[in-house]
Amino acid sequence: MVSHPSWELFDQQPLDYKLSVYPDGIPVLSVEALCTLGWERYAHASMGVNTFGASAPYVVSFSSL
């Protein structure tokens, strides 16, 4: 598992560091409580809420994912 708090800082790192975090040949899945926007640069697939206007308790909102 990787915590990715700052894309800007990560992008400034050397390539060998980036490959140590996201090695070639290993699928990457991003999981976000909100929008998955931006993860297409790093992840092969993303899970999150990509719609606007959902309003309900989290159990109801996330049950459709």
Characterize this entry briefly.
The protein is of the alpha+beta class. The protein has 3 helices and 2 strands.
As a percent range, the share of helical residues equals 10-25%
Number of strands: 2
Contiguous helical run count: 3
CATH architecture type: 3-Layer(aba) Sandwich
In total, how many domains does the architecture comprise? 1
Unreliable sequence segments: none
Topology pattern, helix = H, strand = E: HHEEH
Quaternary organisation of the protein chains: single chain
Give the terminus-to-terminus CA distance.
Answer: 21 Å
Written account of the structure:
The protein is of the alpha+beta class and 65 residues long. Helices cover 25% and strands 9% of the residues. The protein has a two-stranded parallel sheet with strand order 1-2. The chain is elongated, with a radius of gyration of 14 Å. It starts with 6 loop residues before the first helix and ends with a helix.
Keywords, please?
Rossmann fold, 9% strand, two-stranded parallel ribbon, single chain, alpha+beta, 65 residues
Topology:
Blueprint: H1 7-11, H2 15-21, E1 29-31, E2 45-47, H3 58-61
Parallel strand pairs: 1-2
